Amino acid sequence: MSNAHSALPRPPKAAIRPTESEEHGQRRTDDYGWMRAGNWQEMFKDTSLLDPEIRQHLDAENAYAEAMLGDLEPLKTKLIAEMRARIKEDDSSVPAPDGPFRYGVAFETGAEYPRFVRGARDGGPLSTVLDGQVEAEGRDYFSLGGVEHSPDHRWLAWSYDDKGSEFYTLAVRDLETGEDHAERLPDTGGGVAWNGRSSGFFYTRLDANHRPSRIFHHTIGSNPADDTLIYEEPDAGFFMGVGTTQSGGHVVIDIHDHETSEAWLIPAANPAAEPRLVAPRETGVEYDVDEGEDGLFILTNADGARDFKIVTAPVNASSRAEWTDLVPHEEGRLILDHLVLRRHLVWLERREGLPRIVVKRLADGAEHVISFDEEAYSLGLGGTYEFDTTTIRFSYSSLTTPNQTFDYDVETRERTLLKTQEVPSGHDPDAYVTRRILAPAADGETIPISLLYRRDTKLDGSAPLMLYGYGSYGITIPASFNTNCLSLVDRGFVWAIAHIRGGKDKGFRWYEAGRREHKRNTFTDFVACADHLVAEGFTSYERIVAQGGSAGGMLMGAVANMAPEKFGAMVAVVPFVDVLNTMLDDTLPLTPPEWPEWGNPIASPADYRTIADYSPYDNVRAQDYPPILVLAGLTDPRVTYWEPAKWVARLRERKTDDAPIVLRTNMGAGHGGASGRFAKLDEVAMIYAFSLKAMGLEGAEPRR
Q1: Is the pLDDT of residue 457 over 90?
Q2: For residue 70, what pLDDT is reported?
Q3: Is 671 a catalytic residue?
């Protein structure tokens, strides 16, 4: 990739079979629509049903990827060894108390999957209640879903996916005997909410199109076919799940899309009770319910509170008219999450792009803040199993500071460091620099960029730089500790996270300014970050490797079309690149729920034009493109395998240079790639090896 491209192996040439379509008076031709398996629903559960011609094409792409990347195997092996050496193989969490027990997670040396353990609350040995390594034996793919113990600590509901398609099978374990009950509940969302009697649980069942359309209740020991239907959602545009309030008093049925939500409550002690609506859904109004001793505490954006506020309501409230502001809306202070204890309210908020935790004593309203001093950092509110407590748990890290786990007494304000992430091969934070800079956008906004580099890296424009971006769904990419990226940073890379519009890094307005008709801001922000990093001497255009996954893969496709000359290489992981075709196909799992995010091109000519204007697949042009590595998963229900396959075929057909476009499809996994903690490193190592080769650094040794 850093050498002449003409001597490279020849890539597969996909068959061109034009299909015509017309929407809103606009005619389009799709040459590669044949790659979409007509039986995708069945194939996700049994990959042997994949059309042989499609399989042959994907196999040919994988063979080409092997030919293109095969010479990088020694480097991959070295990178995997480095990354694995930074992982404490026999790591474990700090067990969290719940009643007479404490619960935690532990790994054995060499194990891909964790053990779930518990012991007496006050100390003593821990015993294994579920061993993921044992359960994964004999399976080509294995991913654990939810693992939830019952309120009486007798039962464990746990789930697994053995295809990568995110259809989870639920099982029930008797913690007195250590044996699973005979019943298995297939095609679930993976999580459960126990009833207060510990006699059964509520769960979500997925339909044939992978949509969580129904909530059921299962009684321990009964036939799943006899499970009681609790709620059925008629609108395919909504996601649905179940949980419990912090007090354990109610089970919550949560129904939402990307801008509207609705909640129903069931008394946990009376699972047969009819669900009760908290407030009817209103387009654009979101709310999240928790419960205190004397009523509900609701996080919401109602009444124009776009950065959210917290209100209270009686437990039996049935409309917004009964809501009373407790933590008022404050522009620029985005409230992300809230936790209700018996005597305290705790919430996680973000100001100026940085998170902090706020504690409010309910008796007198006294507030205090838990904050930190680094320029860029990540903060996670872990909460607690318990309600009648003054102790919460949170985690802290930065790009240079390994993850730290704290217990915090919200009354005494005592902070107890329980654990610091261990890096067995060694880590010197003083050898690295964490910075946060602001890139100017053309419209006057400033885009935060989090940076990590070695202190001895020359910032004269010669350094290679990995620029990561996402920018969708309001998701903020945290500036957290990442041991893997040190393999690039120690070889001279600058590691950069572009906090572009479409996330909520600078409040809810930052999200609104990067979605639907404003989506182009996400892409121009990313290019503006590249421009600023070059202008400030951190790198040069030909030294930038851009990376993004899923919706961040759409970002890669869009900026590759807009400004290919500003990137030396790109990595697109499970990229959502066939946006227009996918949003026009309402049979796909995520299409109706995604319309609030992208627009509905079926119903709206304006939305059609907006998406058509940036959809990466539809805007590939006759121009030069940088080398691109594309990774996909055959059973991915979120970004179906044919999106990256079609995009790669069209790129090769239309581009005017001979830079390689490499597609590798994991034929035994889905959206998240390989499932094991070490197996995942193979994909990371492939991305890093590709990036190093693209920068002419495949022979570089890490600095010490």
Answers
A1: yes
A2: 94
A3: yes
